[in-house]
Every structure is written in structure tokens, then in C-alpha cells.
Amino acid sequence: MDPARLERHSPDEWHIPPSGNMRVPAILYAPEDLILGMDDKVYEQLVNVTTLPGIVKAAYAMPDAHWGYGFPIGGVAAFDADAGGVVSAGGVGFDISCGVRTLTTGLQRKDIDAVKVHLADTLFARIPAGLGSTGILRLNAQEMNDMLKGGAHWAVNRGFGEMADLERTEEHGHMQGALPSAVSHQAKQRQRDEMGTLGSGNHYLEVQVVSELYAADAAAAYGLHLDDVVVSIHCGSRGLGHQIGTDYLKLMAVAAADFGIHLPDRELACAPLKSPLGQDYLGAMRAGINCALANRQILTHLTRQVFAAILPDARLRVLYDVSHNTCKEETHAIDGKPQRLFVHRKGATRAFGPGHKDLPAEFAQVGQPVLIGGSMGTCSYALAGLPTSEPQSFASACHGAGRAMSRHAATRRWNGRQTIDELAARGILIRCVSQRGVAEEAPGAYKDVSVVVDAAEKSGLARKVARLEPLICIKG
Predict the structure, then answer these.
(1) Which pTM was predicted?
(2) What is the CATH number of the domain that holds 119?
(3) Is 423 helix (H, G, I), strand (E, B) or coil?
(4) 440 neighbors 190 (Cβ within 8 angstroms)
């Protein structure tokens, strides 16, 4: 992207002023090097988002922004239902409620050195991963509906975890307003055997070590210390979420003209929030959120079983579970007045600052944990939400490194076996169903996550708390 097309307001803040059909400005948070590396499609897609009815304040792009379906990945936009605002399936994405759950273990790196290979092999054997992978459950119609209503609560009640897990989970593990009846039979069928599975692509389960601390107060509140071993789980709503996205994008695209909505891009298909179609999508999307929360809860249970068998002194506790593909109804200050808005975060993480009413008491003084996944073989980060994130981006931050090249381009450049061997030489054990999948997810296919995180901090979106280095990575 050419920075000359943007107005620079600070070293890491760039604006696209309203013109043509734009209803609000577009704002990008990134240093110039990341702006130069962004595809021109990010500019185009962000401008398109600003033309949607009922959009409030601005459309935002996070430092890891890249081209997506309709909305850019790393895009944030909020809509006012009372002003004709819309909900867009493309603004949530196909992997509804994809997110990261991080677990502390009570172990230090030295505690796992002797069993590292055994731990990697056992996790790979016990954690279902890969395209079309199936889990330990087979849900009938009633169980499916109960899961879609109950989320992680349903999973805990089935014996997959502890009630304490829910206090450290976004929405306390249960997204209200879910409508299983708005989810198609095909979506439910795709998910019937997939609960408790990682899937493929950029999803993973990673054993990590805390290699650096930046904020002592937040690290203490989060229970993080140097050399601590943690586990991070990155996955979402699997086939069900993808089918919900597919179903409603088609319905919204067909209905747009009837609603009087001009779509600059068919992929921006949307419906008024107050329309029956908009309400149906919200209900189905919330069911997808519950599916993802239940999925990560079951994976937590499986991970605990593996650690209990190999490292019985381990105590795996949820640090936090937060999603980055959602639309949430939230209260935000607009011109100094609180307003209920529907905030789309697509490849962007919620980042509530200190004192927010939805935070667990132990995080009230330091802000919400913001969990940022790196690419395979590179570090990840735990950040904390800041008070400045609210006015800057509707309390949102980045979600990862962001792709720098397509998966197809990555497979032309890297060899899966070679990548595995190179990472093993650095002490990082990769266990993956597909060597092609490893090539697609090679570290070089992504932006530098440290640069992305530094930009988020400089922009006031979140502050760095801890750097997490990979030891074991389980992938599809």
C-alpha cells in the first residue's frame, strides 16, 4: 500500500478521509514498514466497509491487517441498530469465534525437558487435528442444540473441565442470545463429529515458555513468571462456523437489494440488524460462538489428561480465553455518551481496559488479557487492554502476525520436511498431519509478530505483558 494515499496523524496512525460514498473515515494503525507491506486490497476493503449503513465513528485496521473476505482481516467496525446499522457475515468471517485460550501449568521449562519428545508425541496422538478431523463425541440432534445454547458451560457440565474455567473465559463461557434453530441442518451435520478438534490451517495447540516479561503488575495478575510453561490453544467453530458463514452470506447477498443496500463488493453482504434476517444471523453466529467456546473447553480437558499422565505435578489453569472473529453488542462512548453498538471484529481481539465491568476481579486493575498468536516457530504474546483502546478502536487490538503471502505461494517457497527439521534444530518440536500444511504455515509466510505487537502498543491498543516462545507445536 502506498502511504502517500493516506493522511499520517502519528508515526503509527494513518487516516483515509471520507470521500465518495464513505460515511466515516478509515483509520489504520501500523508503522510505515507494515503499511508498505499491506496489499492494496486492504485499502479498498476498508473503504468499502465505511460505506455500510449505520456505521459509527470509523472503520479500523489493526497492525496485522491483510486482505480478507469482504472485510479486511484485522478489521474493526461498529454499527448502530437504531440508525439502520447492519450486521455482516463477512465482517465476522467463516471461522466464527476463532480465538486463543492460554493455560498456565505451574511448571517451569526445566520440568519438561526430559519428557519433551514424549509430551509432543502424546499430545499429537490425543489431540485430533487436521482437515475433517473428528473428536471423541458424536452429538445427536438434542445434544447439538444444547451445545449451541450452552457453550463452554455445556462442556463443563458434561465433565470437560471445571466451573473455574468459565470465569476466565470471554462471556463467562456462554454467549447469550444463541438460536440453534437459525443454524442449518447442514452446519449441524458438519459439526456432529468435530467437537474437541483443532482443524487445519493456522490452528494449533502449542506448549510455550515465558521468555520475557514487560509489565510486572499485569504479569503477576495473570500468574506469569519467567521460564513458566504455558499451553495455548488456537481454534474456532470448525465446520459449523464455516457453514453458518456460507449460508448467511448467500442469503444476505440476495436480500441486499430488497433492503435498499448497495454493496460495493458482494462479499460485504449484510442485513439490517433489526431485520428478521439480521436477527437470524445474530442468533446463528452466537450459536457459533458457543460452539467455539465448547470446542476449546473440550480441548483443554484433553490437554489436562495428557499432562496428568506425563507430568502429574502440573496444574493447568485457564489464564484467559478470548475470540477474534465475532460481532458483539457492547456499550461504547460516542461523543461522550454511552451507546449500544454492534462491534464487528474480524481478525481483531477484544481488549477491554482496566475497570471494565466484564473483567474478572483479578484483572480489574490491569486490563483484559489479549492473547496474540505468532506463526509456527515464532513467539506469541500476552498483552493487556488499555484505557486508550476504547476511544482508539472500540477496545480492540491485533490478533496475530498476519499473513505476508498466500498459502499457495508459501508451498512454492518452503518444504514441509525441511521446515520441521530446521525448527527441531532450534528446539521446537512440530507434530503435524500434513507436511504441506507445515509449508503453508512456515514462519516466513507471516509478518513479524513482534513488529505487529510493538505497533499495537505504540498506538495505545494494548500493552505488552509477556513473550511466549514455542517448545512444542501440534498442527493439522
Answers:
(1) 0.96
(2) 3.90.1860.10
(3) helix
(4) no
Please provide the DSSP assignment of 36-96 as one string.
HHS-HHHHHHHHHHTTSTTEEEEEEEEEEEE--SSSPEEEEEEE-GGGT-EEEGGGT-SST
What number of residues does the chain have? 476
Residues belonging to the active site? 399
Would you say residue 126 has pLDDT above 90?
Answer: yes
Give the mean model confidence (pLDDT) for residues 107-130.
96
Q: Is residue 450 part of a domain?
A: yes
pLDDT tens-digit map of 53-81? 999 999 999 999 999 999 999 999 999 99
Could you report the per-residue pLDDT of 245-271, keeping only the tens digit for each? Answer: 999 999 999 999 999 999 999 999 999
pLDDT for 406: 84
Write out the residue range of the structural domain in which residue 121 sits: 3-404+446-475
> What is d(CA 33, CA 366) in angstroms, rounded to the nearest whole number?
30
Amino acid type, 288: G
| Residue 203 domain-assigned (yes or no) | yes
Residue type, 280: D
Count Cβ neighbours within 10 Å for each residue of 137-155 and write b for 16 or more, e otherwise. bebeeeebbbbbbbbbbbb
Residue with cell 509477556: 466
Answer for the pair 439, 416: CB distance below 8 angstroms, yes or no. Answer: yes
Contact 316, 136 (CB under 8 A): no
Cα 260 from chain centroid? 32
Residue 228: alpha-carbon gap to chain centroid: 23
pLDDT band at 131 (very low <50, low <70, confident <90, very high): confident
Amino acid in position 205: L
Residue 420 falls inside a structural domain: no
